[in-house]
């Protein structure tokens, strides 16, 4: 048996040992967390690749010390092990970031009605998670490339140069860096959160997803509006749920001057108080303007969120219209006209 055959068998045996060790560790870990798998099972799934790679590195390192190799092969193997170690550390950091995110978000639920605090933490955590994931990957890739002499020298010369190539690269990376910084700023200041009701570019919808470069807004008719992340840091927009989801709905009525405001106010109050959409806080009926032929009446009623406020406004309109048609027909808008009959001449009146 030749020396290379023995070396290959030793390394193959090391890989088999690493695989068997991983299977044993996995089975033992699954039995340990069998009664508490809510968090630990996902933890094992996220660290599966990193543990496998770590065992392979250890096994190959032990095998390389047991088998004498020429210097070129030894140097290549050590370089490969170094790259594998950097990849393993990168995977572990990313797994730790995922675990931190999952552990942090377990305390918050978005499927409850009062989810303001949950939306705040979910938005902040997801943005920081994406930014951190990109940074970890970038650092790991940079560390791996710096172990190669040619790439390291090229990178150093590129960073040291101030020529046209550096300018082009800087301009090319400007949108990426702007979105990255905007993501960090958005996570800290939180002008928007997941499930916020916003008006962007004249469209009303809810924030569905926030990525590292863009925001997905789910429009009320199920369309999706894709907006760059830095848009929310540079352009004014409306956020209806910034600090509280409660909104005041507005209903405008235009009625005739014969309307009875006390009776209309009593009926509107009865409608609002009987509605399950009203949150019990705000109700007002006021005459806000006089027009040439109608009276402008404004009804204010509050609801717990934007959707319920919209439905409450529609309900108030429908029921007040039915009330006016049945109880105050004279209050419906109408156009008045005075018709004057022209008098006949005196001589015609005498002949008549």
Brief overview:
It is found in: Membrane. By secondary structure, the protein is an alpha+beta fold. Helix content is 59%, strand content 16%.
Secondary structure layout:
Elements: H1 3-32, H2 37-46, H3 48-66, H4 71-105, H5 116-146, H6 149-160, H7 164-189, E1 197-200, E2 203-210, E3 214-219, E4 224-228, H8 231-234, E5 238-239, E6 247-255, H9 261-274, E7 278-290, E8 295-303, H10 306-326, H11 346-351
Descriptors for this entry?
about 350 residues; alpha+beta; SH3 type barrels; Alpha-Beta Plaits; five-stranded antiparallel beta sheet; three-stranded antiparallel beta sheet; about 60% helix; elongated; MscS_channel_2nd; LSM_dom_sf; transmembrane helix
Walk me through this protein's architecture.
With 352 residues, this protein is of the alpha+beta class. The protein has 3 domains: 1-106, no CATH class; 133-243, SH3 type barrels (Roll); 247-331, Alpha-Beta Plaits, CATH 3.30.70. It is built from 11 helices and 8 strands. The chain has a 5-stranded antiparallel sheet with strand order 4-3-2-1-5. Strands 6-8-7 form a 3-stranded antiparallel sheet, with helices on one face. The longest helix is centred in the N-terminal third of the chain and has 35 residues, at 71-105. It is elongated.
């Amino acid at each position: 048996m030749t020396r290379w055959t023995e070396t290959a068998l030793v390394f193959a045996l090391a890989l088999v040992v690493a695989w068997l060790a991983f299977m044993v560790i996995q089975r033992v870990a699954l039995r340990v967390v069998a009664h508490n798998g809510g968090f630990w099972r996902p933890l094992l799934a996220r660290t599966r690749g990193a543990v496998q790679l770590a065992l392979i590195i250890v096994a190959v390192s032990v095998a390389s010390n047991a088998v004498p190799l020429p210097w070129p092969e030894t140097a290549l193997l050590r370089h490969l092990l170094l790259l594998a170690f950097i990849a393993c550390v990168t995977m572990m950091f990313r797994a730790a970031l995922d675990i931190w995110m999952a552990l942090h978000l377990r305390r918050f639920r978005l499927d409850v009605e009062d989810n303001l605090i949950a939306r705040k933490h979910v938005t902040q955590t997801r943005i920081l998670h994406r930014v951190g994931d990109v940074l970890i990957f970038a650092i790991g890739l940079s560390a791996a490339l710096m172990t190669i002499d040619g790439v390291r020298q090229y990178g150093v010369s590129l960073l040291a140069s101030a020529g046209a190539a550096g300018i082009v690269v800087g301009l090319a990376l400007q949108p990426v860096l702007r979105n990255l910084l905007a993501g960090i700023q958005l996570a800290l200041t939180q002008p928007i959160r997941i499930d916020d009701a916003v008006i962007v570019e004249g469209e009303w919808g809810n924030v569905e997803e926030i990525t590292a470069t863009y925001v997905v807004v789910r429009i009320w008719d199920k369309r999706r509006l894709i907006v760059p992340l830095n848009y929310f840091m540079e352009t004014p927009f409306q956020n209806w749920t910034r600090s509280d989801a409660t909104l005041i709905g507005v209903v405008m009525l235009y009625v005739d001057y014969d309307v009875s405001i006390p009776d209309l106010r009593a009926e509107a109050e009865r409608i609002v108080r009987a509605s399950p959409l009203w949150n019990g806080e705000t109700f007002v009926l006021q005459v806000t303007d006089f027009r040439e032929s109608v009276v402008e009446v404004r009804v204010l009623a509050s609801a717990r969120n934007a959707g319920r406020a919209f439905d409450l406004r529609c309900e108030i309109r429908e029921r007040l219209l039915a009330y006016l048609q049945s109880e105050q027909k004279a209050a419906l808008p109408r156009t008045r006209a005075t018709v004057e009959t022209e008098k006949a001449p005196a001589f015609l009146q005498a002949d008549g």
